[in-house]
Amino acid sequence: MLFDHDNDDPIRVLNDAESWELLEAARHGRLATFAAGELDIVPINFRASGGKLYLKTTPGTKLAELTIHPGVAFEADGVMQDEAWSVVVKGTARVLEHASEIEEAEAIGIETWLPTVKSVYVEIEPQHVEGRHFRLGEEPEATTARDY
């Protein structure tokens, strides 16, 4: 088990350090953007480093959306045999433009799924991080008896 749970509770709220530990080990997540009155969510490769998230992408819809409205949400998770976790980051995205920033992002080593050229780096500055760890199991039987 990645984390101990108090009182046999199946859900454990993670602190910021635990959430970042999971994010730093993960490589895939989902980015939620909002622009022109539309919500969008897409799978994306990323790396967490220094308390920020870094994405590598191509020009297109998600890049246009986060440029129009930089407020984003990001979620990464992991599911194992008897446990799972989820971390949500809400923050502000910005395209990296300065050569020194791009070099730093390249050094992080974001791996991509698709064999396409991705030349744009994006940094997400978090405003809020929230993580949960779950002990998986069967749903308990509900009692129908009521105390009147």
Verbal overview:
It is a single chain. It contains 3 helices and 7 strands; from the N terminus they run βαβββαββαβ. It has 148 residues and is an alpha+beta fold. Strands 2-3-4-7-6-5 form a 6-stranded antiparallel barrel. A hairpin with a 2-residue loop joins β2 and β3. The radius of gyration is 18 Å and the shape is elongated.
Which terms summarize this structure?
alpha+beta; 19% helix; 148 residues; 6-stranded antiparallel barrel; 3 helices; 7 strands
Put the structure in a nutshell.
By secondary structure, the chain is of the alpha+beta class. It has helices at residues 16-25, 61-68, 99-108, and strands spanning 11-14, 28-35, 38-49, 52-57, 71-79, 83-95, 120-135.
Report low-confidence residues grouped into runs of 5 or more: none
**Number of helical segments with 4 or more residues:** 3
| Average of pLDDT | 92
Strand content: over 45%
The largest sheet is: 6 strands, antiparallel, barrel
Numbering strands along the chain, what is their spatial order in the largest sheet? 2-3-4-7-6-5
Number of beta strands: 7
Which structural class is indicated by helix and strand composition?
Answer: alpha+beta
Multimerization state:
single chain
* End-to-end C-alpha gap: 40 Å
Helix content: 10-25%
Using the CA coordinates, give the radius of gyration.
18 Å
SSE pattern, N- to C-terminal: EHEEEHEEHE
Approximate shape: elongated
Topology:
Layout: E1 11-14, H1 16-25, E2 28-35, E3 38-49, E4 52-57, H2 61-68, E5 71-79, E6 83-95, H3 99-108, E7 120-135
Antiparallel strand pairs: 1-7, 2-3, 2-5, 3-4, 4-7, 5-6, 6-7
